[in-house]
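Hi again,

Forgot to attach this to my earlier email, sorry! This is the prediction with magnesium ion bound. I've pasted everything inline since the attachment limit keeps bouncing my files.
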Amino acid sequence: MTTYKITHTSSITAASSFWTKQASRIDWVRPFEQVCDFSKPPFAKWFVGGETNLCYNAIDRHLATRPNQAALVWISSETEQTRTFTYRQLWEEVNCFAAVLKSLGIGKGDRVLIYMPMVPEAVFAMLATVRIGAIHSVVFGGFAAASLAARIDDAKPRVMIVADAGSRAGKIIPLKPLTDEAISLAQHPPKHVVIINRHLDASMQTLPGRDMDYAALAPRHEGEIVACEWVDSSHPSYILYTSGTTGKPKGVQRDTGGYAVALAASMPNIYATQPGEAFFCTSDIGWVVGHSYIVYGPLINGSTTIMYEGLPIRPDPGIWWKLVEQYKVVAMFSSPTAVRVLKKQDTSYLTKYDTSTLRYLYLAGEPLDQPTSDWIENGVGVKVIDNYWQTETGWPILSAQPGIEDTPRKLGSPSFPVYGYNVKLKHDETGAAVGPDEKGVLCIVPPLPPGCMSTIWGDDERFVKTYFGMFKDEQVYTTFDWATRDADGYYYIMGRTDDVINVAGHRLGTREIEEAIQAHKNIAEVAVVGVADALKGQVPVAFAVVKDTSLVATPALIAVHEKEVMATVDHELGAIGRPARVHFVTALPKTRSGKLLRRAIQALCESRDPGDLTTIEDPSALEQVRNAVA
Ligand code: ATP
Ligand code: MG
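Structure tokens for the complex follow:
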């Protein structure tokens, strides 16, 4: 592990020279004078005095070297379309979009809210916004009107860019009516709504004066060249709200220069991807992973980014691997949740296509359990790398970094801290460092590295209080996730700090119990929550999705299966972790970003109100929980 260790150590102890070197990976119109200004902790300003532009780095600078290389390939299994844009064509599209925005009076610092499905125009809109120094806020196209209205009121956009509709499993999902409803709920409605009409929803209504059709605006600006607005390195590039798994979403504000440098460095170092190669991230542009690794990271790197609209199982569960073969994808980025969807399908699809170009599959967003990791690694024959990070950081905190050194991986572990991150595990009450294999809160000693959030949009105080206020004596950034580190320095994420069960004085992470249950071969997915118990304080209760439902077809079979699952936990973890009940369901309640809504499940188990559920993916999953515990 020598190269990794040397790199990581120098990134912390000699941060200035380390990041100066990384900063040369992007183009600056004006060089920076100071690497990091940390004079007002915990606020960090990176590359002070430097001027650059995110869009310039993502597109313009490649025009000389790779104008005819595919920059963006969009495939939709929903509409059965494929569109390819070379760097030159992408530049033209973005210039036109930028000209349209300017014609609507949008300029530096204005907010542009993008509420779009996975279509190329969403990418054009993002790049056009940062091109003119405006600030985008992309809201996931699956959010309903109330969630959208809350984000409108926080970001106060001057313009919104929306599509008439998205499509999911062949079903049209109108977005414009939700936009109208959200605007009517909002206190700070935008002046204009620019509509990308995909002609999916024939019943779409428009409001003359406010609503404008992009197809009518664009021809007036075709061929126009809009100069990049050079902005200060710390100028906000975008606002992105966290998933809202644990409460009110926070508007994460990102800078320009630090973010560009962090992503530029991550492509070769973490994703081991060279310019000209194809990168396929299956996330959505509405999430941080989509921002960083569908749009900005691959483009800054001069890669070909593959953008996919559709489900991983349509037209069949081989679609992803077909795209890997077709576009010679070298690195892929997805989530454990998505892999678990595939796991319920016919495994033969994993080997149907030639995926030999694929070097690594990165998975992030949720704990990656060993059986899932094993299944996909062996099924496809690709090395799986667990990535741990947050909307707040914008790029990985913990990950193997094969571009630096191909360190051995350990299943269930996202390996080591990424260069730039000074990670510490701390006792949640005392703040003392914990020893090997001891559970601690994962913290980052500031300054946060380049690319991480600058503040919470419009609320510096909340930023300091929320993220840096856990310990009295030391101002460190808290992730609110539990982790352990083994004697070899490998980290293991144990779940969120509010996901700990206290059984008769023993503190158990919900994840430990979930992992134990997952060792049972009929379990596809499971959620464990701690439920109040008069005798033991709390007891674990499990909700499991089974692969073979015939095994739980009758009450008698259920009883047998439940005992079997409990026995698995006894064997894997010990009787202390044995769930009091195992309920079998067909789906688990999750947020739109695929994260388990443990707090809502727990509330139902304790006959409490499940709280704000605007971010839930499938309300019927919660009904199943309600019925199971009734
Ligand atoms: P909110 O902060 O609004 O409640 P959220 O935390 O779900 O929402 P995100 O920023 O999308 O919003 O998610 C980051 C969190 O996801 C991490 O803090 C961690 O709990 C979890 N996570 C991400 N990657 C991993 C991983 N590889 N292993 C385990 N957990 C992960
Ligand atoms: Mg969070």
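The first helix runs from residue 2 to 13. The mean pLDDT is 95.

That should be everything now.

G.
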